[in-house]
Specification:
Layout lengths: L2 H21 L2 H31 L2
Helix pairs in contact: 1-2
């Protein structure tokens, strides 16, 4: 997954969380938080992979 897609997942999660808060839907709020965590995890993994690729090149 690209860093852009990971960021998009974080934004989508934040929107879900905010919507859940506004409507009182705790399930949607929790889903949003989970998506944000998934997006952040994917972003960190992509950063690490990118650093590894750069470090391995001469």
């Amino acid at each position: 997954m690209s860093k852009g897609k990971a960021k998009a997942k974080q934004v989508k999660g934040k929107l879900k969380e905010t919507t859940g808060k506004a409507t009182g839907d705790r399930s949607m709020q929790a889903e949003g938080k989970a998506e944000q965590v998934q997006g952040k995890t994917q972003e960190v993994a992509e950063d690490a992979a990118e650093r590894a690729r750069k470090g391995l090149k001469p």
